[in-house]
Specification:
- InterPro entries: Enolpyruvate_Tfrase_dom, Enolpyruvate_Tfrase_sf, EPSP_synthase, EPSP_synthase_CS, RNA3'P_cycl/enolpyr_Trfase_a/b.
- By secondary structure, the chain is α/β, with parallel strands linked by helices.
- It has two domains: 2-18 and 237-427, Enolpyruvate transferase domain (UDP-n-acetylglucosamine1-carboxyvinyl-transferase, Chain, Alpha-beta prism), CATH 3.65.10.10; 21-234, Enolpyruvate transferase domain (UDP-n-acetylglucosamine1-carboxyvinyl-transferase, Chain, Alpha-beta prism).
- The protein is built from 13 helices and 24 strands.
- The strands form six sheets. A four-stranded mixed β-sheet has the order 22-23-1-24. A four-stranded mixed β-sheet has the order 2-15-17-16.
- Helix 4 (95-105) links the parallel strand 6 (86-90) and strand 7 (110-115).
- The structure holds shikimate-3-phosphate and phosphoenolpyruvate (PEP).
- Shikimate-3-phosphate binds next to helix 1 and helix 6.
Length: 429
Amino acid sequence: MKSVKIMPSKLRGTINVPPSKSMAHRVVICGGLGAGKSSISNIDLSDDLTATIEGMRALGSEIEKSSSGFIINGAEFLDNANAAFTNVIDCNESGTTLRLLIPISLTKENSVVFTGRGNLGKRPLDLYYEIFEKHGISYEYEKDGLNLKIKGSMKPGEYKIRGDISSQFISGLLLALPLLDGDSKITVTTDMESRGYIDLTIDMQKRFGIDIQQSKSREFYIKGRQIYKPTDYAVEGDFSQGAFYLVAGALGNDIKCKGLNIDSLQGDKAVLGIIEAMGGKVETKGGYIQAYGADTQGTVIDGSQFPDIIPILAVLGALSRGTTKIVNAGRLRIKECDRLKAICEGLRNLGADIRELEDGLIINGRKSLDGGIADSWNDHRIAMSLAIASTRCKDAVTIRNSHAVKKSYPGFWNDFKSLGGNADEWNMG
Ligand SMILES: O=C(O)C1=C[C@@H](OP(=O)(O)O)[C@@H](O)[C@H](O)C1
Ligand SMILES: C=C(OP(=O)(O)O)C(=O)O
């Protein structure tokens, strides 16, 4: 367990925003299913992505390091139609790995064990259990502990699924169904939350030659017997991570973000519009995006479509004039930790006026915060949000469990220091 002590200072400089974790998961999966070799570049080996790489290897994909990233050969998996092997896939703490690889592992008659750590065993999987029951797939798991054992295979046909628990279930089905030997349809039975991630899945599949048709926004048609055609792909910058530096900019730090694609489909690009709606200024020029310090004011933020940037937007609210209300964000409670509770407790420890609602937060902004001791709750996005909050604190900020950042952004503390952040990390044993 590590802790970090930060002496407040302004951040200044240019940052190469790390590659998108969500897009990297998808390119590894599509490449890993491909009939031939794909070359993927601009990869950051976070714990989550490592879990997906190892998971695809366990399913038979060959994934080798190259000078710019990885060469992936999925042919082995496709040839393995009749293999009855028992695989163990360790998802670590990655919800994306777990929910995207479960359906893929069931495109062949298969027997797989999914394991994980941290909060992963407590995060919902019921939508898949309902599908397993309909398809005669046997499954058993330890309550709250995962260790999910499944045996069987999915059949083509009609899939009805809720869209308001996690988009990852829909992404998982979309990735797997084209490989079945018949056509399928997915009907989403509720409003779709985190919709942008579904668009990312379909976009990546298209790059690998997979066609998903949509008639109405809640219906997807998937032809069977499709083939993932290998392709080469460089992963673009991650708006979920860029959001920390963009909010930092709006809070008065001077940071140029390189590597972000302004035309990206990533839902977390919404951070740009929210900064502007709160009175900040965002500029895109010369290959970078920068947000500028401003007297930002509170607003209402709907968290249903971009849950991952809500903790850092709460930091912006805590340091903006007036009241910021976060609404429709109940799903933050089923991430790596209960993120509503964690960011509320963390920011309050630093002196913010913030209160938890059942599915959101109410924040009355202050000009600056005091500083103090807060915990990441073993959640990368909480640790990084508190680090950015420190830039507007009067006194030192200590963040316990600071190592959590490695789930998505192992280089965060180095990058923070490269911008002039005065952070001292030490091991608590
Ligand atoms: O598919 C993805 O890459 C992700 C989907 C989102 O989850 P939900 O759909 O559960 O909101 C997001 O929170 C997660 O970090 C990554
Ligand atoms: C929730 C996250 O990831 P996952 O769902 O893949 O665990 C995240 O990265 O914030």
